[in-house]
Amino acid sequence: MPRTESPRRGRRPGDSGTREAILDAARARFSTAGFRDATVRAIAGDAGVDPALVMHYFGSKQALFVAAMEFPLDPAEVVPRLVAPGVDGLGERLVRFLLGVIDELGDANPMLALVRSAVGHPEAARMMREFLGEAILDRVASAIDTDRPRLRADLCASQIVGILVARQILELPELAAADRETLIGVYGRTIQGYLTGPLESS
Amino acid sequence: MPRTESPRRGRRPGDSGTREAILDAARARFSTAGFRDATVRAIAGDAGVDPALVMHYFGSKQALFVAAMEFPLDPAEVVPRLVAPGVDGLGERLVRFLLGVIDELGDANPMLALVRSAVGHPEAARMMREFLGEAILDRVASAIDTDRPRLRADLCASQIVGILVARQILELPELAAADRETLIGVYGRTIQGYLTGPLESS
């Protein structure tokens, strides 16, 4: 039925809906193909635009994901900044930053939406695993100069996702009521241990 | 319309479906009222039996919950056994037990179903928070003779739920591939720190 062109096809750079069309295509493609297999070329094709235009608007696939998921922060900016001073004190810096963002965002926290979605749907779990891996965990791992850096980053992620679930979603009472500095101290030591402590089994 | 009695009303102790009717009523009542507010009396009423019969079959509200959720283990038996030797080494015992159960159960793990449900639905989160609190966290807290025992139990829960989500649901690659003894060593130290280490903020 070629009578009318789909509104998603044949957009020119100036079209006011182009950016939104790219974001819609990205959301759909990321959630079905995962982060790694969703190419900028395929997303551009779905949106009816040239891949160069996607890069012009967003700069990278990671940045496109961040925009599509409406993250308030881009890990490509935040993680290098937290990691830059070196691995000493990185545990506390990560936890201080995370708890600050959590408390600031409240219920509008897209990390919570992503965790809810990932826990409920295997495709969303894959998308989160792949994006987390490239955008955050590989970057944290690159700051670690001891053995098994990516396992260490995964261990950190397991405590951080546990904070999100236990404190923000399950709302365990003492954890929800604890003051932020106490949690930064306790969790900061845990994360630091995962980054730089021993991994052998006793 | 009093023409036919509901099949759920007026059961006698010998009825073969009585136990199932109580479990159905318990599942429905726990998921709408939460664990704490779902009384044995109300569940018995929903199932059309005497509360004494519920206690005769299940022994306690906690045990009824465990049966209704089809847990393979009863925390009322497991937790006291893990806690009994004292708080020394409890971190490693808890993690060793948990990872053993996780690996043994595989995809048929009802803990995963409960986490998925709790993360997706506020009523299920409430049910899990209340059951976890009474059946596990208060018992762990009672073994701790330092300051803020229940906060310490909540901290342990945040790492344990993080292991479930990051390793079993997100399947972070290095975490999923790590050998069990390494994880028992690393997470055992974390849990032990939460149980007996300092809580002050640096």
From TrEMBL, chains A, B:
HTH tetR-type domain ranges (all copies): 16-76
DNA-binding region per Swiss-Prot/TrEMBL record: 39-58
InterPro entries: Homeodomain-like_sf, HTH-type_TetR-like_transc_reg, HTH_TetR, Tet_transcr_reg_TetR-rel_C_sf, TetR_C_16
Keywords on record: DNA-binding
Pfam families in UniProt: TetR_C_16, TetR_N
DNA-binding as UniProt keyword: yes
Alphabetical list of Gene3D superfamilies matching this protein: Homeodomain-like (1.10.10.60), Tetracycline Repressor, domain 2 (1.10.357.10)
Protein name, UniProt field: TetR family transcriptional regulator
Organism listed in the record: Actinomycetospora rhizophila
